[in-house]
Write a structure and sequence with these properties.
about 0% strand; about 70% helix; about 90 residues; mainly alpha
């Protein structure tokens, strides 16, 4: 799999997380507290995925564990969500 494909899937996963957060009427703070209760600044952890850039100006990468934690916090099955994203990617790549 090419690096761009990986980035495309990560962006799709972030779009999906944002959609679910909005559908659940959760603020970044609320999602952060649910998904990352041990984090010192849970809102920042969530917000950074959409707004922070690396030194090279690229968006932060979505870690699998963070994806799973946020899905779980919103009552979604991370494995099912990832499977659905993967299926969509395969269809669009054809």
């Amino acid at each position: 799999m090419k690096e761009q494909e990986v980035l495309d899937i990560e962006r799709a996963a972030l779009d999906l997380l944002l959609q679910y957060r909005k559908e659940g009427n959760l603020s970044e703070t609320e999602l952060g507290k649910l998904a990352f209760p041990e984090a010192a600044r849970p809102r920042s952890k969530v917000n950074a995925l959409w707004s922070v850039k690396t030194d090279g100006g690229k968006p932060l990468r979505l870690r699998l564990g963070d994806f799973c934690a946020m899905c779980d916090a919103m009552g979604k099955d991370p494995s099912q969500e990832l499977f659905t994203l993967w299926q969509r990617h395969k269809i669009s790549a054809k």
